[in-house]
Amino acid sequence: MGGGPGEFTRREKRLVLAASCIAIFITPLMGTMINLALVPIGQEFGVGTHGLGWMSAAFFLSSVMFLVPIAKVSDIYGKRKVMVAGLLVITVASVLSSLAPEYTTLILSRVAAGIGAAAVSCTSLSMLSDVFGRNERGAALGINTAFVYIGAAIGPVVGGFLSDALGWRSIFLIVVPFALAALVLMLAFRYEFSPSEGETLDVRGSAVYMASIALVMFGLINLPEAYAFVSLAAGSALFLLFYRAMSRSERPVLNTRLFGNRVFARATAATFMNYAASYAVTFFLALYLQSIGQLSATGAGVILLVQPAVQAVLTPIAGRMSDVTDPRLLPTAGMALTCAGLAMLMLLDEGGGLAYVTVTLVVLGLGYSLFSAPNTNSVMRSVSVREYSDASATVSTMRQMGMMVSMAVAMCTISLVMGSTDNLGPETYGLFVTAMRLSFGVCLVMCVIGTVISWFRGDEPSPS
Fold first, then answer.
1. Does residue 197 sit within a domain?
2. Tell me, what DSSP letter sits at residue 425?
C-alpha cells in the first residue's frame, strides 16, 4: 500500500508522471496512425470501407466496456500491477497486429489493445491523484493531458511516413518501445495502491455492465440504421437495471453513490457534453479541407495539427492554474470558447477559407486547453482517496461515450442530408456544407448545455 502524497519523494512523483505520460501518449498515437494505414490494410486483406471501420470500433468497444471493471480490479489487486499488465497487453497486441495473417486476427488484436488501453487509462489518472497532492495535482494532470494531444498531433505524420516507407505493419511495432519504456518506469516505482484489498469482484455485475455498454456502443456506431435504435434501447434499458442493482449492492462494480456528489456528477456530465460537442469537428474538417479546400491529405493534416498543437502548449499551464482558481472558472470558460468555435464553424461555406478554419481551430484548441485538465482536476478533488479509481474510470468512460455520440450525430446528419460521403464531389459540396452546419448546430446546443452544467457544478467538498 502506498502512503499519502506528502510521503512521496520528488523522484517517485516524477517516475509516476513519466510512466503515465508515456502510457497515455500511446492510445491517441495508435488511433491517429491507424487512420493513415486503413487503405493499404483494406487492399491487403480485401476489406471494404464498412469493414475497415471496425479497426477503430473494436478498440473503442473493448476499451469502454472494460474501463469500469478494470478500475475495480485495480483497487482490489493493485493499481501498479494493473497498469503494468495493461502495458504488457498493449505490447503483445501490437506485436500480434504487426504479424496478423488475416483481418480477423488483426481485429482481435485491436480488441486486446483496447483492453490494455483501458487498464492504462483508469490507473494512470488514479495513480497521479494518489501521488500528487491537491495543490500540485492540476499541474501533473495538465502535463499528462498534454501528452494525449502530442500523441494525436504527431500520429498522422508518423503513421503516414511509416506506412509509406515501411508498410502498414510498422505502425504497430513503433508502439512497442513506448510501452516498454513506460513499463520499466512503472516497475521502478516501488509503491502499490490497493484501497479495496481483500474484496471480491462482482463478476455478474461486471458482465451486465459490459453487455449494456456494448449494446449502446454498437447502436451508436451503426446509426441511423433501424437495428441501431433497437440496440441503443436495449443497452439503455439494461444499463438502468444495472444501475438500480448497483445502488443496492454492498460491493458495486460501479460506485453509483458518486453521482450523489454534485460536483462529481456535473463535472463528469460536462466531460460527456464537451466531447459529444466537439469530437466530430476533425472528421468534418478533414473532409472539408480535402474536398472544398482542395488540399492534399498532407496539407489538410498540417492545418488540423493547429488545434492539438495549441492544446499541447497551453494545457499544462491551465492545469497549474486550476490548482489555485475557482474550479468552475477554467472548465466553463473552456466550454464557452468551444461554443464560440462551433458557432464560427457554422458559418463555413463553399469558399474554403483556410485562414478562417485555422483561426477557428486556435479558438477550439484554447477551449479544450482550459477545459480538459482543470475539469479532471475538479473531478478528482471532489472524491475521496478510495474513490480515485471509480472517478478515473467514469471520466474516461464519459469521454469516450461523448466521442461516439459526436460521431453518431455526424453520421446521422450526413445520412439525412446526402446519404453518405462516398459521393462527395463538386456537385454535392452544397449538401455536404448543409450537413456539416446542421451537425455543428446540434453540437453547439450540447456545448451550451454543458457550459451551464459546468458553471453550476457547486463548491468542492473538503479534502477527505
1. no
2. S
- Say if pTM beats, i.e. exceeds, 0.90: no
DSSP 225-280: SHHHHHHHHHHHHHHHHHHHHHHH-SS-SS-GGGGGSHHHHHHHHHHHHHHHHHTT
Q: Which domain holds residue 268?
A: 261-464
148 and 176 belong to one structural domain: yes
Tens-digit pLDDT profile for the chain (464 aa)? 555 555 788 899 999 999 999 999 998 888 778 877 777 888 899 887 667 778 878 888 898 899 989 999 998 999 999 999 999 999 999 999 999 999 999 999 999 999 999 999 889 989 999 999 888 899 999 999 899 888 887 887 788 788 878 888 999 999 999 999 999 999 999 888 887 777 888 888 889 999 999 999 888 878 778 898 999 999 999 999 998 888 887 788 888 888 889 999 999 999 999 999 998 898 888 888 878 888 876 787 788 889 988 998 999 999 999 989 888 999 999 999 999 999 999 999 887 688 999 999 999 999 999 999 999 999 999 988 888 888 888 898 898 889 888 888 888 888 888 876 666 778 888 898 999 999 999 999 999 999 999 999 876 655 44
186 and 272 inside one domain: no
The H-or-E segment that residue 195 falls in is none
Q: What is the DSSP secondary structure assignment for residue 424, as one 8-state letter? A: -
Residue 323: what residue type?
A: D
